[in-house]
Amino acid sequence: MKTLGKKIRLLRQQKGWTQQEVAKQLDVSIPAFSKMETGITDLNLSRLNQIAKLFNLTLVQLVSNSDTDDIKDYSNEISMLARKLQQKDDEIIQIRKKIIALYEQLEKDTPTL
């Protein structure tokens, strides 16, 4: 059951969803969903169907062990890319400030007719 919980966690992370968001969609508490992800709670067929639908999977795809290897934990890569994106955004802001300053300087230095 721990493998299934790990798979559910990785699927959730792939979607970029928090435990709170998934718990709300499944109509369970956050601690109850956390127990599903950690494998503490055994899931009944009804709950497995609900989770499979949430992630657009068939029940077989959800419980199949072979799919577990295909799901990768991209959380570190996503964090790294988010930091790089923020750095680029900061660079763009600085360049825009320089352009505005240069434009203002140009207006000041240009004689009016």
UniProtKB/TrEMBL annotation:
Residues 8-62 form the HTH cro/C1-type domain. InterPro entries: Cro/C1-type_HTH (IPR001387), Lambda_DNA-bd_dom_sf (IPR010982). PROSITE patterns: HTH_CROC1. Keywords: DNA-binding. The keyword DNA-binding applies. This is Transcriptional regulator with XRE-family HTH domain. It comes from Sphingobacterium zeae.
